[in-house]
Amino acid sequence: MHELLLYGQVPAFRQTQVLQILTGLTAMQPHPVLERHIIYKPTAPKGNSKSVGGSQTIADPKKRSQQSSVNMDIFYAQLVQDLEESDFGAVEGEGEGGDKMDGSTGGESKKEKPWKFEFQGTPLAGAKEVLSRFVQGTELADGDPQLYLSSNGYSYISSYILTGHRFISGNTILLLYRILPLPTPTNPLTTPLPPLPSLAPLEKTGSYILQTSLRLIDNTKPELVTRGTKELLQMQAQLRGVVELGVVERLALDTRVR
């Protein structure tokens, strides 16, 4: 599946105003989004080397084919879990019945919410009107997601909370969000979450990102790409003067392991 994208930035003081405008534009109430994202890095295949020279470039076809498969790019992946505010630790002094809480027990007694494995490719080069990238998501119904990833050569890198609101207009998804990095956990899947108010935005000014996206099942059909691009550009035009949507530098969304 492919995803077409446009991005814009919204200062923190304008968040409420933009939410109101998007509510009117889409004729729907904002849907709260609160997600935990855990980033994993795959292990490079043994012998992976992206630089060759001299006599190394002179090889028979079989060796060249083997070298090509070894030198393929590898990409970061992530686990995503939908959350509720009650999944986070309590702010100190806000326990039930006036009991003092230290924020260290959030979510311990609750049933574990399901996870989803997500992959996002690096946007294709040469984009002029909208970005395009390959995306894939798989629901993990049962089992230990971390055990599955570690057994397949993935190691933990970092985790964060995505918080914001989602709107839908036609086939276009609008997500106004910001990122809250999480402290390094003992175990990224089982360590209790800290109090939500204790998390500071990644962007020091507290600004938000407006992501407008549209997904295509098959990007090899020009008519589908044209139709999807047209719909995103129409949204861009509708929001002109409110949020300036555009194509960001594709390498800012590069998910390849370097």
UniProtKB/TrEMBL annotation:
Compartment list: Nucleus
InterPro entries referenced in this protein's UniProt entry, alphabetically: Mediator_Med18 (IPR019095)
GO molecular function, one term: transcription coregulator activity
GO cellular component, one term: core mediator complex
Chain segments carrying region Disordered: 42-66, 90-112
Ranges of biased composition (kind: Basic and acidic residues): 97-112
Protein name: Mediator of RNA polymerase II transcription subunit 18
Biased composition regions of type Polar residues, renumbered to the chain: 46-58
Keywords: Activator, Nucleus, Transcription, Transcription regulation
Family classification: Belongs to the Mediator complex subunit 18 family.
Subunit structure: Component of the Mediator complex.
Cited PANTHER family: MEDIATOR OF RNA POLYMERASE II TRANSCRIPTION SUBUNIT 18, MEDIATOR OF RNA POLYMERASE II TRANSCRIPTION, SUBUNIT 18
